[in-house]
Amino acid sequence: MSISKETFKEMLRKKGLKVTDQRLLVLETLADHRDKHMTCEDIYEMVKAECPGIGLATIYRTVQLLLEMQLVDRISLDDGCVRYEIGEAAGDEGKHHHHHLICKTCGKILPFHDDLLDELEGRIEEETGFHVLDHELKFYGQCRECQKKENSTEQHMEV
Question: pLDDT: is 37 or 153 the higher one?
């Protein structure tokens, strides 16, 4: 997890908020599934196995709180669903997110961790005076598995 339980508890206390098992469980679930991009419903399904009495509304409120505390990131992948993932460097101003590779065939979402835009951000600031704090980049295409299936299908059709 990019933030310790104790640090998270202290952050909640400083904001005058209660430290609850549900809040800790939601944060842990996101941290344990770092490369998944989960909806609140996905988080709910995972959390209710450990905490059957938890409600979906509690998940939504907790995710919103974690978002406000900059511990999770919101991702919109243009499919009508809002997803969340644990922040790259919880609470770190000026952090850069990883980027997303989205397969248009199967819908798989892959993270891409290299940040190749530092030079461009420097140029933007130099030319315009605009200081980039963050950016989000999505690439749409076809994953390796879907390409293999497509190539396999094409080869069988040629025979």
Answer: 37
